[in-house]
Automatic annotation (TrEMBL):
InterPro entries: TM7S3/TM198-like_dom, TM7SF3. Residues 294-498 form the TM7S3/TM198-like domain. PANTHER family: TRANSMEMBRANE 7 SUPERFAMILY MEMBER 3. Pfam families: Ig_TM7SF3_N, TM7S3_TM198. The keyword Membrane applies. The chain crosses the membrane at residues 291-308, 315-337, 343-362, 369-389, 401-419, 426-447, 480-499. The lineage of its organism: Eukaryota, Metazoa, Chordata, Craniata, Vertebrata. GO terms for biological process: negative regulation of programmed cell death. It is found in: Membrane. This is Transmembrane 7 superfamily member 3.
């Protein structure tokens, strides 16, 4: 019996130890300012704990980030409305009581699945502004989170106003009683962007990037400031969506009187869904898009080097691009057709436009009219490049009237150059536009920011709210490579064509005009054998008569007598 009792005692001890281990596994100890990896088990809850909080710390923020899964961060073991938040970049702010040294929060997933991420707890003193303390929009009483939404065109962020700092146990200053310099209205806000490496959707890249923008100093050192605003401005901003490009948004609130600052909870997006089987992050490159832009790139390469030599082919390509762009805008605005069908109809109408442009030159022979259309295409590209630069984010260009007037002026000014130097202008257009078509073809297979030169203009045409969006993006390694390719191809194509065409006529003659001249020459030149030939219609009618009429007998056929 003694061995049996001993075995039972051992089993009880092991069971007790395993329960303690399970509790330890679901309880994570944090150190202030240090990142901690956290794993949430299936149907489990993790308690995040920080202890030995210094007496000069007035409030703490806990932020927890996952790659794409939503997590629920709560003040209580059972999440309650107004005491929890459920997002992929979650954060809570806890005010401390006078003698409090330990704070805890609770982490779980809303659907009971497992999740992994990183968290960090940041301390702030009584002089630091309190992010989200004047919240009147979101469920939390004090909400330091940045709320993000995105669609195909724009990514929008929104956050609650902050309040000036206060000590432990003190009554928070009123938010909207007056607007003096001793209230929260003196606070200023700064919005920052941090771009992840292009085309990198990995979790490791996100985690290392979030560590660079977790607190105020890191945000200032590593991120790009987009805009500054006062407490009188709206706390809602719009940015151009960049599907497949990771972006982290951060907001810093500053107290200019006390020279202190605090950070809201950073939020990230890829402007695509990891959970969707249709149009997800793993399926950004549609087959139809790749086929379409591959053909565009090959045609652009041809135009870049021999477009002027084969003038009819160049006109077809330029007419195709001009008509396809206009038709895509019209059909997208007016119809709810699926993307692949719209792309197919766009290609069909582009072919019609290209043929129409070639036929107009063939029939009327107006080189200048065709070259002016080509000049408008170059003007459109140059205008797009101008607004793609940081100039496009100037406040004045958020006004649609100003934007489109400036855009149209640049676009129309470029063809004026073609009136004086039509051949040189046409060759330059072939080189610049043809080389950019190659860049668009490469973008169908690997991400590059240069595609947004024209895509941002297209978005602004299709979405009336896009005018408020900030559109500038930083250039990364792949972008500099593609700029080099663009410049080398464009310059090479221009030089080759200028050299080959220097001894040739400026433009080939119109085939219809040549045919008319040849016909008049034959009518007036009686020595030309073709002058005595029947017309084509007369020859056809004569041949038909020969085939349909029976031959008449020639009369008596008596043989001759010798």
């Amino acid at each position: 019996k003694m061995p049996q009792k001993r075995e039972c005692l051992v089993l009880l001890v092991l069971s007790w130890l395993s329960s303690l281990r399970a509790q330890d596994e679901n309880r994570v100890l944090f150190s202030l300012g240090t990142f901690q990896n956290v794993s949430v088990p299936v149907n489990g809850t993790v308690q995040a704990v920080v202890s030995r909080v210094p007496a000069d710390v007035s409030f703490l923020t806990l932020q927890f980030h996952t790659h794409h899964r939503n997590v629920t961060l709560s003040y209580t073991l059972i999440p309650l409305y107004g005491f929890s938040v459920t997002v992929a970049d979650a954060g809570l702010l806890s005010n401390l009581t006078p003698r409090q040294t330990t704070v805890s929060w609770f982490l779980k997933t809303p659907d009971g699945s497992s999740a992994a991420g990183i968290g960090v707890i940041l301390p702030y003193t009584s002089t630091d502004p309190v992010p989200g303390a004047c919240n009147q929009e979101f469920p939390l009483e004090i909400d330091p989170n940045i709320y993000l939404q995105y669609n195909l065109f724009e990514t929008m962020i929104n956050f609650a106003p902050a309040n000036i700092g206060y000590g432990r146990g003190a009554i928070p200053p009123a938010c909207d009683v007056n607007m003096g310099s001793s209230t929260r209205w003196r606070l200023v806000y700064e919005v920052y962007q941090y771009f992840l490496p292009e085309g990198d959707l990995s979790e490791q890249s996100l985690i290392s990037s979030l560590e660079k923008v977790a607190n105020v100093k890191n945000v200032q050192d590593n991120s790009r400031k987009v805009v500054s605003l006062t407490s009188h401005d709206r706390t809602q901003f719009s940015f151009s969506s960049l599907p497949g490009q990771g972006v982290i948004f951060s907001v810093i609130v500053r107290d200019p009187v006390l020279n202190t600052s605090a950070s809201y909870i950073p939020v990230h997006t890829y402007a695509c869904s990891f959970n969707s089987t249709l149009d997800g992050c793993s399926d950004l490159g549609r087959v139809s898009t790749k086929v379409f832009f591959t053909v565009i790139g090959l045609a652009g390469l041809f135009v870049c080097f021999v477009g002027h030599r084969f003038f009819k082919c160049e006109l077809f390509c330029m007419g195709f691009g001009f008509t396809a762009f206009v038709f895509f805008v019209v059909i997208t605005i007016t119809t709810p057709l699926e993307y692949n069908l719209r792309l197919a109809l766009t290609a069909l109408m582009g072919v019609v436009g290209g043929v129409a442009m070639v036929m107009s030159w063939w029939r009327f022979g107006s080189v200048m009219a065709c070259v002016l259309v080509v000049g408008l295409i170059l003007g459109f590209l140059i205008s797009s490049i101008v607004v793609f630069t940081p100039l496009g984010d100037l406040p004045v260009f958020h006004n649609d009237v100003v934007f489109w007037v400036v855009f149209a002026c640049i676009m129309v000014f470029v063809p004026l150059f073609f009136i004086r130097w039509p051949r040189e202008g046409n060759i330059i257009t072939c080189g610049v536009v043809g080389a950019y078509s190659v860049v668009l073809a490469v973008n169908a297979y690997t991400y590059t920011s240069l595609s947004f030169i024209t895509l941002d203009v297209l978005k602004r045409l299709l979405n009336h709210n896009f005018s408020r969006a900030f559109i500038s993006v930083p250039l990364q390694d792949i972008d500099f490579i593609m700029i080099t390719v663009w410049v080398v191809l464009g310059v090479s194509g221009i030089v080759v064509q200028l050299y080959r065409e220097k001894s040739r006529p400026f433009f080939p003659p119109s085939p219809y005009a040549m045919w008319k001249q040849e016909r008049e020459r034959r009518k007036t030149n009686v020595l030309d054998p073709s002058h005595h030939k029947l017309s084509l219609s007369a020859q056809i009618l004569g041949r038909i008569r020969q085939l349909t009429q029976r031959a008449e007998p020639a009369g008596e056929t008596t043989p001759l007598l010798l």
